[in-house]
Amino acid sequence: MSEAKWLAVYTRPRCEKKVADLLTKRKIHNYCPMNTSQRQWSDRKKVIFEPLFTSYVFVNLTEKERVTVLETAGVINFVYWLGKPAIIRDEEIGAIKFFLKEYQSVTLEKKMVNLNDEVRIINGPLMLRKGNVLEVRNSTVKVTLPSLGHTLVAEIRKDNIENLTYAEASGFRI
Question: Which residues contact 88 (CB under 8 A, 6 or more apart)?
């Protein structure tokens, strides 16, 4: 029996929530990360829940369940990388869930992944998480999701991260 893996499915525009609901009804384990933001109208403010990844829903399934997903209304296809369905690591799904739980109004940037200094966050809600530094501006740190080529952005103070190259050279290990 094949092992369940996280894959990304590409949906029709603005159908992420509907696809997630239909997949749930078909008993397909899925995750549609929702970002909260506050919108201001002339007469009121309202909290809006919008998909973090436009036109993407993540599914955790076996090879046998792939056909069921493709037959779901609103699903266009799986997201492919080098001719195969892109497999999303459990750690990356966990990082998305954690990020959305700890931070509001998360932004998403499409980026090519470049390997730079590896760091570990030493204080704050992401304490002990590791990642690659892509860019640091004032207090902004960007966390990379390599298998999707996306970056989550949140405010983290620079003094709450340490360079792993330095930490490992000094013998510090977790």
Answer: 5, 6, 7, 8, 58, 147, 148
Lowest mean pLDDT among 11-20, 43-52, 66-75, 132-141: 132-141
160 DSSP assignment: G
Q: Are the CB atoms for 49 and 35 separated by under 8 Å? A: yes
CB atoms within 10 A of CB 111: 14
Which of 88, 117, 151 delimits the end of a domain?
88
Domain final residue, candidates 88, 103, 122: 88
Helix-then-strand count for the chain, H and E? 4, 16
Query: CA–CA separation, 136 vs 142, rounded Å?
Result: 7
Residue 164: what residue type? L
The pTM of this model reads 0.65
Q: Would you state the pLDDT for residue 166?
A: 41
